[in-house]
């Protein structure tokens, strides 16, 4: 079975740990750089220092982000302890993740929102879209210990 592990900066260790012991799974480690991040970095620099810069700010920002992406995927493979296919993409995060899962049997991702209580806020916007639109089964994990059941809000008053 092909398993895609969505590696993100804040939760990658837990996602990798969740698949480490899967026997005979074909593992793909996936990281996506948001294309808006590259543009935001370049735009912020131009806004602060002026537009007459002598070098390509967007290219420099993209290079730094790409180097970080490569380092993150390498660290995830090292933590996994076995070779895995590494896929580095750029674009709209949620769209790139579901496209990478086109022929996968399972997508593994970690919650990326509020980790202090149970509920929908424990899942960020990109992850919510991916969960709702993934073309395969999805394994959603907590990146740390799940909150206690006492964090579930009370039911709404009955009218």
**Tally of extended strands?**
5
Low-confidence stretches at least 5 residues in length (pLDDT < 50)? none
| CATH-assigned fold name | Rossmann fold
**Number of discrete domains:** 1
Order of helices and strands: EHEHHEHEHE
Please tell me how large the radius of gyration is.
18 Å
Named at the architecture level, the CATH assignment is 3-Layer(aba) Sandwich
Helical proportion, percent range: 40-55%
Tell me the distance between the termini.
49 Å
The CATH superfamily name is: HUPs
Shape: globular
The count of helical stretches stands at 5
Structural class: alpha/beta
Biggest sheet features:
5 strands, parallel
Q: CATH class, please?
A: Alpha Beta
**Share of β-strand residues:** 15-25%
Mean pLDDT: 90
């Amino acid at each position: 079975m092909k398993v895609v592990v969505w590696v993100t900066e804040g939760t990658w260790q837990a996602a990798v740990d969740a698949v480490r012991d899967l026997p005979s799974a074909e593992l793909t480690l996936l990281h996506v750089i948001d294309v808006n991040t590259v543009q935001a970095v370049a735009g912020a620099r131009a806004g602060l220092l002026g537009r007459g810069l002598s070098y390509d700010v967007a290219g420099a920002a993209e290079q730094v982000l790409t180097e970080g992406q490569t380092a993150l995927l390498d660290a995830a493979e090292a933590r996994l302890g076995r070779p895995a296919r590494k896929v580095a993409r750029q674009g709209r995060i949620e769209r790139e993740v579901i496209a990478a899962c086109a022929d996968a049997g399972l997508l593994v991702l970690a919650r990326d929102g509020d980790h202090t209580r149970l509920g929908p806020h424990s899942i960020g916007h990109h992850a919510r879209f991916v969960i709702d639109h993934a073309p395969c089964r999805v394994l959603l994990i907590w990146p740390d210990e799940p909150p206690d059941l006492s964090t579930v809000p009370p039911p709404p008053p009955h009218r």
